[in-house]
Amino acid sequence: MNRRGAALVLVLVAVAILVPLALGAGALARARALRVDGRIDRAALRDAAESALARELWLLEADTNAVDTLVEPWAERSREATARLEKGTDGVFVLVEDERARLGVPDCGERALAALLQLRAGLDEAAAAGESAALFAWIRAQAEAAGSTNLALSAEERLFDAMPAGTADDAGFEAPLAAAMPLLSAHAGAKINVNTAGHDALVAAMLAGGATRGGAEGVWLRLEMSRERGDVFRSTAQTEALKLLRGEGDIPSPEEIAALQGVQNALRVDSGLFRVRAVARRAGRSAAVECVYERGTRRILRWLEN
Fold first, then answer.
1. How far, in whole angstroms, is CA 36 from its chain's centroid?
2. Could you read off the pLDDT of 221-258 as tens digits, one per residue?
3. Nearest-angstrom CA–CA distance, 32 and 105
4. CA dist., res. 31 & res. 286, Å (int)
5. Is the CB of residue 231 less than 8 Å from the CB of residue 244?
6. What are the beta bridge partners of residue 285?
7. Each residue of 11-20: pLDDT tens digit?
8. Which residues pair with 96 in a beta bridge?
9. Model pTM?
10. Most buried of 142, 192, 229, 236 (most Cβ within 10 A)?
């Protein structure tokens, strides 16, 4: 082979080596640029979500009336944001929930949690009572280990720690608890807001107070009709409840009156505690921040980012 041929071979070999390296380097640079752009976009989305959340907290702080209901501006804004978010459009959406529409755990007590497990997870009475007792035993053990007599949780999700991972009944334990989790709060306290609570949380509270299932369901049906009429509870006095729940003049049954009496001390008409979630979404990317905010003290009791 002459020198010209040898040089050509060397050039071809060099090209064969360098071209893939160049292509790889280019691909790596593009991937790195995309990752950087993704981080920048996500940071911008997070900033937008945080700004929207801060604005909502300011609006909640401006609401100073003595009751919190589902017909107030914060609830209307949340319903509109939820509808837009579910359409899949881009934008910034702020969802607000009354934290005291949930059962406060452990303040609600074993019976209320057991009733909620029955309603949400379909457990029978014995199984629900067993699960609830196990959860409360774990909470008490945690308090004792910390040298405290207060049964406190930093977050309701900590209840999942009550069952060691890998145990035989782990899956059977976590599924019912996961079903109940959206209606539990570590911060809500012992009383539930009768103006904002949903069916399962309020019925569970009534069952814990000694109500029959029929009596509790009857009260809930009357409450639904009361809300449809635009009525609002301004106190938890039994006379107020009977006045609002009489419907078209019919008198609540003895079972319903007993349900009201049993739950009266576990009810409130105000909240001052809200779970606020802001979601910013654009071009397939999204960021969200969430907090539990205590109006009045202006404290953030919980903060999440995702």
1. 32
2. 999 999 999 999 999 998 888 888 887 678 899 999 99
3. 46
4. 20
5. yes
6. 282
7. 444 545 545 5
8. 276
9. 0.84
10. 192
As given in the structure block, the two tokens for residue 80 are: 């509109």
Q: 73 in helix, strand or coil?
A: helix
Q: Given the DSSP bridges, would you call strands 103-104 and 192-193 parallel, antiparallel or unpaired?
A: unpaired
The CA distance from 97 to 68, in Å, is: 11
Q: Could you count the other beta carbons within 10 Å of the beta carbon of residue 74? A: 21
**CA dihedral over 57, 266, 217, 270, signed as positive or negative:** negative
pLDDT, one tens digit per residue, over 200-218 is: 999 999 999 999 999 999 9
Please tell me the distance from the alpha carbon of residue 220 to that of residue 259, in angstroms, as a whole number: 10
**Residue 304 backbone dihedrals phi, psi, to 5 degrees:** -135, 145
How confident is residue 35, by pLDDT bands cut at 50, 70 and 90?
low
Cα separation, 96 vs 69, in Å, equals 12
- Order of all β-strands in the sheet with 91-98: 91-98, 273-282, 285-294, 299-305
Helix 170-180 vs helix 125-145: angle between axes, to the nearest 10 degrees? Answer: 90
